[in-house]
Input
Amino acid sequence: MTTKSPHDGLWSTFRTPLTLALISLAGLIGALLAEGGLDLILTFAVAVPLLTVAACVFIAVSRR
Amino acid sequence: MDARSQAPSPRNAARRISAPGLSRNALRAWVLIHKWTSLVCTVFLLMLCLTGLPLIFHEELEDLMGHSAPLETVALGIVPPTLDAVVGGVLAQRPGEVVQSLLFEPDRPVVIVATATRVDASPREAHMQPVDLRTGKLAPPPPQREGFIWFVHELHVRMFLGLPGTLFLGAMGLLFLAATISGVVIYAPFMRKLAFGAVRLGQSRRLLWLDLHNLLGIATAGWLLVVGVTGVFNSLDEPLAHQWRNGQLAQMRAPYANAPPLARLGSLDAAVATARRASPDMEPSVIAYPGSFFATPHHYNVFMRGASPVTERLLKPTLVDAETAALTDTRDMPLHIRALFLARPLHFGDYAGLPLKVVWALLDIVAIVVLVSGLYLWWARARVPSAKRADDLISRYGAERAR
Output
Protein backbone atom coordinates (compact mmCIF):
# COMPACT_ATOMS: atom_id res chain seq x y z
CA MET A 1 0.00 0.00 0.00
CA THR A 2 1.22 3.44 -0.82
CA THR A 3 1.97 5.69 2.12
CA LYS A 4 2.77 9.35 2.29
CA SER A 5 5.72 11.18 3.70
CA PRO A 6 4.98 12.52 7.18
CA HIS A 7 5.84 15.98 5.90
CA ASP A 8 3.15 15.91 3.26
CA GLY A 9 0.41 18.43 3.91
CA LEU A 10 -3.05 19.28 2.66
CA TRP A 11 -1.77 19.94 -0.86
CA SER A 12 -0.55 16.37 -1.12
CA THR A 13 -3.98 15.12 0.02
CA PHE A 14 -6.05 17.33 -2.20
CA ARG A 15 -4.00 17.87 -5.36
CA THR A 16 -5.36 14.80 -7.19
CA PRO A 17 -9.02 15.32 -6.19
CA LEU A 18 -8.72 18.99 -7.09
CA THR A 19 -7.24 18.16 -10.49
CA LEU A 20 -10.01 15.65 -11.15
CA ALA A 21 -12.68 18.15 -10.14
CA LEU A 22 -11.19 20.87 -12.37
CA ILE A 23 -10.93 18.57 -15.40
CA SER A 24 -14.47 17.35 -14.87
CA LEU A 25 -15.84 20.87 -14.41
CA ALA A 26 -13.99 22.08 -17.50
CA GLY A 27 -15.69 19.27 -19.44
CA LEU A 28 -19.11 20.09 -18.00
CA ILE A 29 -18.94 23.81 -18.71
CA GLY A 30 -17.10 23.35 -22.02
CA ALA A 31 -19.76 20.97 -23.36
CA LEU A 32 -22.42 23.50 -22.42
CA LEU A 33 -20.69 26.41 -24.14
CA ALA A 34 -18.97 24.80 -27.11
CA GLU A 35 -20.36 23.89 -30.52
CA GLY A 36 -21.21 20.23 -31.17
CA GLY A 37 -17.84 19.16 -32.65
CA LEU A 38 -16.05 19.11 -29.29
CA ASP A 39 -18.73 17.18 -27.41
CA LEU A 40 -16.90 13.86 -27.39
CA ILE A 41 -13.62 15.26 -26.03
CA LEU A 42 -15.45 17.28 -23.39
CA THR A 43 -17.56 14.26 -22.41
CA PHE A 44 -14.31 12.34 -21.98
CA ALA A 45 -13.11 15.10 -19.61
CA VAL A 46 -16.30 14.67 -17.55
CA ALA A 47 -15.57 10.94 -17.38
CA VAL A 48 -11.96 11.34 -16.15
CA PRO A 49 -12.90 10.90 -12.43
CA LEU A 50 -14.72 7.67 -13.30
CA LEU A 51 -11.72 6.37 -15.24
CA THR A 52 -9.45 7.28 -12.33
CA VAL A 53 -11.65 5.40 -9.87
CA ALA A 54 -11.68 2.38 -12.19
CA ALA A 55 -7.88 2.52 -12.45
CA CYS A 56 -7.45 2.74 -8.67
CA VAL A 57 -9.71 -0.26 -8.08
CA PHE A 58 -7.96 -2.20 -10.84
CA ILE A 59 -4.54 -1.49 -9.31
CA ALA A 60 -5.75 -2.51 -5.85
CA VAL A 61 -7.17 -5.78 -7.15
CA SER A 62 -4.12 -6.62 -9.26
CA ARG A 63 -1.71 -5.94 -6.34
CA ARG A 64 -3.61 -8.17 -3.96
CA MET B 1 7.10 1.63 15.37
CA ASP B 2 3.51 1.30 16.56
CA ALA B 3 1.76 4.53 15.78
CA ARG B 4 -0.75 3.93 18.54
CA SER B 5 1.97 4.00 21.22
CA GLN B 6 3.02 7.38 19.86
CA ALA B 7 -0.51 8.76 19.77
CA PRO B 8 -0.70 12.01 21.72
CA SER B 9 -3.57 12.96 23.98
CA PRO B 10 -6.49 14.70 22.22
CA ARG B 11 -5.31 18.02 23.65
CA ASN B 12 -1.83 17.58 22.18
CA ALA B 13 -3.33 16.31 18.96
CA ALA B 14 -5.55 19.36 18.72
CA ARG B 15 -2.47 21.54 19.16
CA ARG B 16 -0.65 19.59 16.47
CA ILE B 17 -3.43 19.74 13.88
CA SER B 18 -4.03 23.43 14.36
CA ALA B 19 -1.42 24.06 11.67
CA PRO B 20 -3.64 23.02 8.73
CA GLY B 21 -6.38 25.12 10.29
CA LEU B 22 -8.54 22.39 11.83
CA SER B 23 -8.73 22.24 15.62
CA ARG B 24 -10.00 19.27 17.60
CA ASN B 25 -13.37 20.91 18.20
CA ALA B 26 -13.64 21.97 14.58
CA LEU B 27 -12.92 18.44 13.35
CA ARG B 28 -15.47 17.03 15.78
CA ALA B 29 -18.03 19.55 14.51
CA TRP B 30 -17.33 18.64 10.86
CA VAL B 31 -17.71 14.93 11.66
CA LEU B 32 -21.07 15.63 13.30
CA ILE B 33 -22.17 17.82 10.40
CA HIS B 34 -21.22 15.10 7.92
CA LYS B 35 -23.00 12.42 9.91
CA TRP B 36 -26.28 14.20 10.52
CA THR B 37 -26.68 16.03 7.22
CA SER B 38 -25.99 12.75 5.43
CA LEU B 39 -28.35 10.71 7.58
CA VAL B 40 -31.24 13.14 7.20
CA CYS B 41 -30.99 13.48 3.42
CA THR B 42 -29.76 10.02 2.36
CA VAL B 43 -33.16 8.39 1.84
CA PHE B 44 -34.36 11.31 -0.29
CA LEU B 45 -31.07 11.50 -2.17
CA LEU B 46 -31.29 7.79 -2.90
CA MET B 47 -34.78 8.34 -4.29
CA LEU B 48 -33.53 11.28 -6.38
CA CYS B 49 -30.57 9.28 -7.74
CA LEU B 50 -32.73 6.25 -8.57
CA THR B 51 -35.47 8.29 -10.24
CA GLY B 52 -32.86 10.49 -11.94
CA LEU B 53 -31.40 7.48 -13.71
CA PRO B 54 -34.35 6.87 -16.10
CA LEU B 55 -34.92 10.62 -16.40
CA ILE B 56 -31.44 11.03 -17.93
CA PHE B 57 -32.65 8.82 -20.79
CA HIS B 58 -36.25 10.08 -20.89
CA GLU B 59 -36.05 11.01 -24.59
CA GLU B 60 -34.74 7.58 -25.56
CA LEU B 61 -37.29 5.85 -23.31
CA GLU B 62 -40.15 7.91 -24.73
CA ASP B 63 -39.02 7.00 -28.25
CA LEU B 64 -38.87 3.36 -27.20
CA MET B 65 -42.40 3.55 -25.78
CA GLY B 66 -43.62 5.20 -28.99
CA HIS B 67 -44.61 8.45 -27.28
CA SER B 68 -43.09 10.66 -29.96
CA ALA B 69 -44.20 9.31 -33.32
CA PRO B 70 -41.74 9.86 -36.19
CA LEU B 71 -42.65 12.64 -38.61
CA GLU B 72 -44.00 11.67 -42.00
CA THR B 73 -42.04 12.47 -45.16
CA VAL B 74 -43.32 15.62 -46.84
CA ALA B 75 -43.07 16.41 -50.56
CA LEU B 76 -40.86 19.33 -51.55
CA GLY B 77 -42.60 22.59 -52.27
CA ILE B 78 -45.54 22.03 -49.94
CA VAL B 79 -46.72 25.30 -48.41
CA PRO B 80 -46.73 25.13 -44.59
CA PRO B 81 -49.85 26.37 -42.81
CA THR B 82 -49.88 29.64 -40.89
CA LEU B 83 -49.77 29.52 -37.09
CA ASP B 84 -53.30 30.90 -37.02
CA ALA B 85 -54.40 27.92 -39.15
CA VAL B 86 -52.51 25.51 -36.88
CA VAL B 87 -54.22 26.94 -33.80
CA GLY B 88 -57.60 26.90 -35.59
CA GLY B 89 -57.11 23.24 -36.44
CA VAL B 90 -56.37 22.35 -32.83
CA LEU B 91 -59.33 24.34 -31.43
CA ALA B 92 -61.64 22.60 -33.92
CA GLN B 93 -60.67 19.33 -32.22
CA ARG B 94 -61.05 20.77 -28.71
CA PRO B 95 -64.45 22.50 -28.61
CA GLY B 96 -65.03 24.70 -25.57
CA GLU B 97 -61.31 25.13 -24.94
CA VAL B 98 -58.95 28.07 -25.46
CA VAL B 99 -55.24 28.19 -26.26
CA GLN B 100 -52.86 28.83 -23.36
CA SER B 101 -49.51 28.58 -25.11
CA LEU B 102 -47.49 27.22 -28.01
CA LEU B 103 -44.21 25.42 -27.44
CA PHE B 104 -41.89 24.98 -30.44
CA GLU B 105 -39.78 21.82 -30.26
CA PRO B 106 -36.12 22.76 -30.77
CA ASP B 107 -35.10 19.76 -32.88
CA ARG B 108 -38.18 19.04 -34.99
CA PRO B 109 -40.70 21.11 -36.99
CA VAL B 110 -43.33 20.45 -34.35
CA VAL B 111 -45.28 22.84 -32.17
CA ILE B 112 -47.16 21.71 -29.08
CA VAL B 113 -50.38 23.62 -28.57
CA ALA B 114 -51.59 23.71 -24.95
CA THR B 115 -55.35 24.17 -24.57
CA ALA B 116 -57.60 24.26 -21.51
CA THR B 117 -61.11 25.28 -20.53
CA ARG B 118 -59.75 28.61 -19.20
CA VAL B 119 -56.70 30.50 -20.38
CA ASP B 120 -55.49 30.91 -16.79
CA ALA B 121 -56.04 27.25 -15.83
CA SER B 122 -53.19 25.36 -14.20
CA PRO B 123 -50.72 23.92 -16.72
CA ARG B 124 -51.53 20.50 -15.26
CA GLU B 125 -55.10 20.84 -16.57
CA ALA B 126 -53.88 21.61 -20.08
CA HIS B 127 -54.18 19.29 -23.06
CA MET B 128 -50.98 19.12 -25.11
CA GLN B 129 -51.48 18.69 -28.84
CA PRO B 130 -48.40 18.25 -31.07
CA VAL B 131 -48.83 19.58 -34.61
CA ASP B 132 -46.54 19.12 -37.63
CA LEU B 133 -45.63 22.66 -38.68
CA ARG B 134 -44.98 21.58 -42.28
CA THR B 135 -48.44 20.14 -42.88
CA GLY B 136 -50.62 21.29 -39.98
CA LYS B 137 -51.49 17.65 -39.25
CA LEU B 138 -52.20 16.78 -35.66
CA ALA B 139 -49.90 14.11 -34.21
CA PRO B 140 -51.10 11.68 -31.53
CA PRO B 141 -50.69 13.45 -28.18
CA PRO B 142 -48.24 11.81 -25.75
CA PRO B 143 -49.71 10.30 -22.57
CA GLN B 144 -50.45 13.04 -20.05
CA ARG B 145 -50.22 12.53 -16.31
CA GLU B 146 -49.74 8.81 -16.75
CA GLY B 147 -47.03 6.33 -17.63
CA PHE B 148 -43.64 5.42 -16.22
CA ILE B 149 -41.74 8.61 -17.17
CA TRP B 150 -44.47 10.86 -15.76
CA PHE B 151 -44.53 8.86 -12.50
CA VAL B 152 -40.74 9.00 -12.13
CA HIS B 153 -40.65 12.71 -13.00
CA GLU B 154 -43.36 13.57 -10.47
CA LEU B 155 -41.55 11.62 -7.78
CA HIS B 156 -38.20 13.23 -8.64
CA VAL B 157 -39.48 16.81 -8.84
CA ARG B 158 -42.45 17.02 -6.48
CA MET B 159 -42.93 13.69 -4.68
CA PHE B 160 -46.60 14.12 -5.73
CA LEU B 161 -46.85 16.98 -3.20
CA GLY B 162 -46.81 20.00 -5.51
CA LEU B 163 -44.69 23.01 -4.61
CA PRO B 164 -44.18 21.97 -0.94
CA GLY B 165 -42.67 18.69 -2.20
CA THR B 166 -40.33 20.55 -4.54
CA LEU B 167 -39.19 22.95 -1.82
CA PHE B 168 -38.69 20.07 0.61
CA LEU B 169 -36.45 18.31 -1.92
CA GLY B 170 -34.59 21.60 -2.38
CA ALA B 171 -33.97 21.64 1.38
CA MET B 172 -32.71 18.05 1.18
CA GLY B 173 -30.41 19.25 -1.60
CA LEU B 174 -28.98 21.89 0.74
CA LEU B 175 -28.30 19.18 3.35
CA PHE B 176 -26.65 17.09 0.64
CA LEU B 177 -24.37 20.03 -0.23
CA ALA B 178 -23.46 20.38 3.45
CA ALA B 179 -22.76 16.62 3.60
CA THR B 180 -20.54 16.80 0.50
CA ILE B 181 -18.55 19.81 1.72
CA SER B 182 -18.11 18.34 5.22
CA GLY B 183 -17.09 15.05 3.59
CA VAL B 184 -14.33 16.84 1.68
CA VAL B 185 -13.16 18.52 4.90
CA ILE B 186 -12.92 15.29 6.92
CA TYR B 187 -11.36 13.47 3.96
CA ALA B 188 -7.98 15.00 4.88
CA PRO B 189 -7.54 13.36 8.31
CA PHE B 190 -8.79 10.05 6.92
CA MET B 191 -6.19 10.19 4.16
CA ARG B 192 -3.21 11.40 6.21
CA LYS B 193 -1.54 8.03 5.92
CA LEU B 194 -2.85 6.86 2.60
CA ALA B 195 -2.13 7.96 -0.92
CA PHE B 196 -4.97 8.99 -3.20
CA GLY B 197 -6.92 6.00 -4.46
CA ALA B 198 -5.73 3.51 -1.84
CA VAL B 199 -8.21 0.64 -1.53
CA ARG B 200 -7.34 -1.76 1.29
CA LEU B 201 -8.41 -5.17 0.09
CA GLY B 202 -7.97 -8.23 2.29
CA GLN B 203 -8.56 -6.40 5.56
CA SER B 204 -11.91 -5.79 7.19
CA ARG B 205 -15.04 -5.24 5.11
CA ARG B 206 -15.57 -1.92 6.86
CA LEU B 207 -12.13 -0.64 5.83
CA LEU B 208 -12.79 -1.66 2.23
CA TRP B 209 -16.09 0.23 2.15
CA LEU B 210 -14.53 3.19 3.94
CA ASP B 211 -11.83 3.40 1.25
CA LEU B 212 -14.38 3.03 -1.56
CA HIS B 213 -16.65 5.65 0.06
CA ASN B 214 -13.71 8.07 0.32
CA LEU B 215 -12.39 7.36 -3.17
CA LEU B 216 -15.74 7.54 -4.97
CA GLY B 217 -16.85 10.54 -2.95
CA ILE B 218 -13.73 12.65 -3.41
CA ALA B 219 -13.25 11.72 -7.08
CA THR B 220 -16.78 12.78 -7.98
CA ALA B 221 -17.08 15.65 -5.48
CA GLY B 222 -16.98 18.26 -8.26
CA TRP B 223 -19.83 16.61 -10.17
CA LEU B 224 -21.81 16.02 -6.95
CA LEU B 225 -21.53 19.70 -6.06
CA VAL B 226 -22.61 20.83 -9.54
CA VAL B 227 -25.63 18.52 -9.61
CA GLY B 228 -26.49 19.43 -5.99
CA VAL B 229 -26.28 23.20 -6.52
CA THR B 230 -28.23 23.09 -9.82
CA GLY B 231 -30.81 20.77 -8.22
CA VAL B 232 -31.39 23.22 -5.37
CA PHE B 233 -31.61 26.06 -7.89
CA ASN B 234 -34.11 24.12 -10.01
CA SER B 235 -36.30 23.55 -6.95
CA LEU B 236 -36.80 27.33 -6.86
CA ASP B 237 -38.18 27.29 -10.42
CA GLU B 238 -41.79 28.07 -9.49
CA PRO B 239 -41.12 30.80 -6.89
CA LEU B 240 -38.69 32.44 -9.33
CA ALA B 241 -41.32 32.32 -12.10
CA HIS B 242 -43.79 34.12 -9.81
CA GLN B 243 -41.12 36.62 -8.84
CA TRP B 244 -40.31 37.32 -12.52
CA ARG B 245 -44.01 37.71 -13.36
CA ASN B 246 -44.53 40.22 -10.53
CA GLY B 247 -41.27 42.01 -11.31
CA GLN B 248 -40.00 42.35 -14.86
CA LEU B 249 -43.24 41.33 -16.61
CA ALA B 250 -45.24 43.80 -14.48
CA GLN B 251 -42.79 46.56 -15.48
CA MET B 252 -43.07 45.64 -19.17
CA ARG B 253 -46.88 45.80 -19.10
CA ALA B 254 -46.98 49.06 -17.12
CA PRO B 255 -48.16 51.17 -20.14
CA TYR B 256 -51.28 48.97 -20.30
CA ALA B 257 -52.16 49.35 -16.60
CA ASN B 258 -55.39 51.25 -17.35
CA ALA B 259 -56.08 49.85 -20.81
CA PRO B 260 -59.61 48.58 -21.55
CA PRO B 261 -60.04 44.80 -21.85
CA LEU B 262 -58.92 43.15 -25.07
CA ALA B 263 -61.68 43.54 -27.69
CA ARG B 264 -60.54 40.80 -30.07
CA LEU B 265 -57.59 38.50 -30.48
CA GLY B 266 -55.42 39.55 -33.45
CA SER B 267 -53.29 37.40 -35.71
CA LEU B 268 -50.70 35.18 -34.05
CA ASP B 269 -48.59 35.19 -37.22
CA ALA B 270 -48.47 38.99 -37.17
CA ALA B 271 -47.38 38.91 -33.51
CA VAL B 272 -44.59 36.44 -34.29
CA ALA B 273 -43.47 38.57 -37.26
CA THR B 274 -43.23 41.57 -34.90
CA ALA B 275 -41.16 39.56 -32.41
CA ARG B 276 -38.84 38.39 -35.22
CA ARG B 277 -38.31 41.97 -36.34
CA ALA B 278 -37.45 42.96 -32.76
CA SER B 279 -34.90 40.11 -32.42
CA PRO B 280 -33.80 39.21 -35.96
CA ASP B 281 -31.24 36.58 -34.95
CA MET B 282 -33.65 34.67 -32.75
CA GLU B 283 -36.44 32.13 -33.18
CA PRO B 284 -39.71 31.80 -31.25
CA SER B 285 -39.52 29.17 -28.53
CA VAL B 286 -42.72 29.65 -26.53
CA ILE B 287 -45.76 31.86 -27.10
CA ALA B 288 -47.94 32.64 -24.10
CA TYR B 289 -51.49 33.71 -24.94
CA PRO B 290 -53.11 36.84 -23.45
CA GLY B 291 -54.39 36.15 -19.94
CA SER B 292 -52.15 33.14 -19.35
CA PHE B 293 -49.58 33.00 -16.54
CA PHE B 294 -46.58 34.16 -18.58
CA ALA B 295 -48.38 36.84 -20.59
CA THR B 296 -50.53 39.87 -19.79
CA PRO B 297 -54.28 40.32 -20.45
CA HIS B 298 -53.41 42.48 -23.50
CA HIS B 299 -50.37 40.77 -25.01
CA TYR B 300 -48.98 37.75 -26.65
CA ASN B 301 -45.65 37.08 -24.94
CA VAL B 302 -43.33 35.62 -27.56
CA PHE B 303 -40.29 34.09 -25.84
CA MET B 304 -37.42 34.14 -28.32
CA ARG B 305 -34.33 31.96 -28.20
CA GLY B 306 -30.90 32.42 -29.79
CA ALA B 307 -28.93 30.13 -32.07
CA SER B 308 -25.67 29.59 -30.16
CA PRO B 309 -25.23 26.71 -27.68
CA VAL B 310 -25.74 29.11 -24.79
CA THR B 311 -28.36 31.52 -26.15
CA GLU B 312 -30.59 28.70 -27.40
CA ARG B 313 -31.20 27.92 -23.72
CA LEU B 314 -32.01 31.51 -22.78
CA LEU B 315 -35.42 33.04 -23.43
CA LYS B 316 -36.09 36.67 -24.27
CA PRO B 317 -39.67 37.81 -23.57
CA THR B 318 -41.28 40.01 -26.23
CA LEU B 319 -44.63 41.61 -25.45
CA VAL B 320 -46.72 42.15 -28.57
CA ASP B 321 -50.12 43.87 -28.46
CA ALA B 322 -52.56 41.02 -29.06
CA GLU B 323 -54.96 43.26 -31.01
CA THR B 324 -52.70 45.39 -33.19
CA ALA B 325 -49.49 43.25 -33.26
CA ALA B 326 -47.49 46.34 -32.24
CA LEU B 327 -44.33 45.80 -30.19
CA THR B 328 -44.76 46.90 -26.56
CA ASP B 329 -41.45 45.83 -25.01
CA THR B 330 -38.67 43.25 -25.22
CA ARG B 331 -35.92 42.69 -22.66
CA ASP B 332 -33.31 40.19 -21.60
CA MET B 333 -34.39 38.29 -18.53
CA PRO B 334 -32.73 39.07 -15.17
CA LEU B 335 -29.40 37.39 -14.44
CA HIS B 336 -30.77 34.91 -11.88
CA ILE B 337 -33.44 33.70 -14.32
CA ARG B 338 -30.82 33.22 -17.03
CA ALA B 339 -28.70 31.32 -14.50
CA LEU B 340 -31.75 29.10 -13.84
CA PHE B 341 -32.06 28.33 -17.57
CA LEU B 342 -28.37 27.35 -17.67
CA ALA B 343 -28.65 25.32 -14.46
CA ARG B 344 -31.20 22.93 -15.99
CA PRO B 345 -28.87 21.20 -18.48
CA LEU B 346 -26.10 21.06 -15.88
CA HIS B 347 -28.46 19.12 -13.62
CA PHE B 348 -29.84 16.72 -16.22
CA GLY B 349 -26.72 16.23 -18.37
CA ASP B 350 -28.79 16.25 -21.56
CA TYR B 351 -26.80 18.78 -23.56
CA ALA B 352 -24.09 16.81 -25.34
CA GLY B 353 -25.74 13.74 -26.76
CA LEU B 354 -25.89 10.12 -25.66
CA PRO B 355 -22.20 9.75 -24.57
CA LEU B 356 -22.62 12.45 -21.91
CA LYS B 357 -25.89 10.86 -20.80
CA VAL B 358 -24.07 7.55 -20.31
CA VAL B 359 -21.32 9.27 -18.27
CA TRP B 360 -24.02 11.09 -16.28
CA ALA B 361 -25.74 7.77 -15.53
CA LEU B 362 -22.43 6.22 -14.39
CA LEU B 363 -21.77 9.21 -12.12
CA ASP B 364 -25.31 8.83 -10.79
CA ILE B 365 -24.60 5.16 -9.99
CA VAL B 366 -21.37 6.22 -8.23
CA ALA B 367 -23.43 8.66 -6.15
CA ILE B 368 -25.76 5.79 -5.20
CA VAL B 369 -22.75 3.71 -4.10
CA VAL B 370 -21.43 6.64 -2.03
CA LEU B 371 -24.82 7.02 -0.31
CA VAL B 372 -25.26 3.31 0.38
CA SER B 373 -21.67 2.86 1.57
CA GLY B 374 -22.11 5.88 3.84
CA LEU B 375 -25.19 4.26 5.36
CA TYR B 376 -23.28 1.00 5.81
CA LEU B 377 -20.36 2.78 7.50
CA TRP B 378 -22.74 4.56 9.86
CA TRP B 379 -24.53 1.30 10.66
CA ALA B 380 -21.22 -0.54 11.22
CA ARG B 381 -20.03 2.03 13.73
CA ALA B 382 -23.38 3.13 15.09
CA ARG B 383 -22.51 2.01 18.60
CA VAL B 384 -19.31 4.07 18.75
CA PRO B 385 -20.09 7.67 19.78
CA SER B 386 -19.17 10.21 17.11
CA ALA B 387 -17.14 12.24 19.64
CA LYS B 388 -14.92 9.20 20.19
CA ARG B 389 -14.59 8.75 16.44
CA ALA B 390 -13.46 12.33 16.11
CA ASP B 391 -10.92 11.74 18.92
CA ASP B 392 -9.74 8.60 17.09
CA LEU B 393 -9.27 10.64 13.95
CA ILE B 394 -7.39 13.31 15.88
CA SER B 395 -5.18 10.71 17.53
CA ARG B 396 -4.41 9.07 14.20
CA TYR B 397 -3.84 12.42 12.57
CA GLY B 398 -1.66 13.65 15.39
CA ALA B 399 0.34 10.40 15.52
CA GLU B 400 1.11 10.75 11.85
CA ARG B 401 2.38 14.26 12.33
CA ALA B 402 4.33 13.26 15.46
CA ARG B 403 6.34 10.65 13.58
Q: What stands out?
A: Chain B touches chain A through 43 residues (CB under 8 Å). Confidence is low (pLDDT under 50) at residues 1-19 of chain B.
